[in-house]
Specification:
Length: 341
């Protein structure tokens, strides 16, 4: 069993409701009003949290690179982050972020964010992971592109720096990620390997992969979120719009209900059915007093609920026993009808 933890009082891990994250990233384009609208829409769609990306472009990217151009001008200052955090809390969800660099970690701390997301591109940035873990906030770590040894190193770095909670997300760093690249079986494999909760960060179009991930044991789900998938920007086209996200959350919650408990046993609603569905021992033909029972004497039939006494798996137990009295055809067998039972 993995070690669960909490994010701002919300339990995360096995045995708790799946923690669903709407990843806004930089889909807001630097527009605080749009970010606020996205937070409200994500809350209405059923998200537990909204995640941004907080990046100081000069600390994270070389000038002239595509990432520098993409992130330029899309960071929020502390006052904006504080306002957005209040909006999230007003709508009953939490707001946190992926910091691209140490100054962004400090900014997140100043904004009072309850968790830190480590993106796949930061998985091998062990100095940043140690800095993030040292804040005392729980970490959610994506593992796109990674080998198991790299995930182990990241987790060890976080643990060594005092992380009080770590969630590990299976991820494929393709945008979009085709079905054949998702490797969802890595979810139970990592859950067996690590002592921390394991989840799934999705770049597949549609909600099938997220629902399947939950069926395989994912305890967190992260999905890109937008108000309009046709808006300009790198991630909008792979992002779920509010109605799609709401269907995804509904599917996740339905699968949660389907999963039940890790034990083979009848559910309470099945218990009353057992005596009316299983087969019981019935006299196939007239059995005279003093006759030793043979298999040909006995039928195995479904009876009226409550009438069955000896289940079909008692057949071997009664064979060879002598009838104490005449047993009529169709009569339900009882132990007291036979010698030695």
């Amino acid at each position: 069993m993995s070690m669960g933890f909490d994010i701002a009082g919300r339990a995360v891990g096995a045995g708790h409701p799946v923690f669903v994250i709407a990843e806004i990233g930089i889909n807001h384009g630097g527009d605080e009003g749009l970010a606020a609208a996205m937070i409200e829409a994500a809350a209405k769609a059923g998200a537990d949290a909204v995640k941004l990306q907080t990046v100081s472009v000069d600390d994270s990217y070389q000038p002239g690179t595509p990432s520098y151009e993409e992130f330029q001008g899309k960071a929020f200052a502390l006052d904006a982050l504080n306002r957005l955090g209040r909006i999230a809390r007003q709508h009953g969800i939490m707001l946190f972020s992926t910091p691209g660099d140490v100054p962004s970690v400090d900014l997140m701390l100043s904004a009072g964010m309850p968790a830190i997301k480590i993106s796949s591109g930061l998985l091998t940035n062990l100095p940043l992971i140690r800095r993030a873990a040292g804040t005392g906030l729980p970490l959610i770590v994506s593992t796109g592109m990674a080998r198991l040894s790299e995930v182990e190193a990241a987790v060890a770095a976080a643990e060594g720096a005092g992380a009080r909670g770590i969630a590990i997300l299976q991820c494929t760093s393709l945008y979009p990620a085709p079905a054949g690249t998702l490797n969802l079986r890595a979810i139970p494999a990592m859950a067996a390997h690590f002592r921390w909760p394991v989840g799934y960060s999705d770049h597949y179009q549609g909600d099938t992969a997220c629902v399947a991930a939950v069926a395989l044991g994912a305890t967190l789900i992260e999905k890109h979120f937008t108000l309009d998938s046709h808006m300009p920007g790198a991630d909008h086209s792979i992002s779920a719009e509010p109605d799609d996200f709401a269907r995804l959350v509904a599917g996740v919650r339905e699968v949660e209900r389907m999963l039940g408990f890790a034990q083979k046993a009848p559910v309470p609603d099945e218990e009353p059915l057992r005596n009316g569905r299983y087969r019981f021992l019935v006299a196939r033909r007239l059995i005279s007093a003093g006759k030793a029972l043979e298999e040909a004497d006995i039928a195995m039939k479904r009876t009226k609920p409550g009438e069955g006494v000896m289940p079909a798996n008692d057949l071997d137990r009664v064979l060879g026993h002598v009838a104490k009295r005449l047993i009529a055809p169709g009569e339900i067998l009882r132990p007291e009808f036979l010698e030695g039972l």
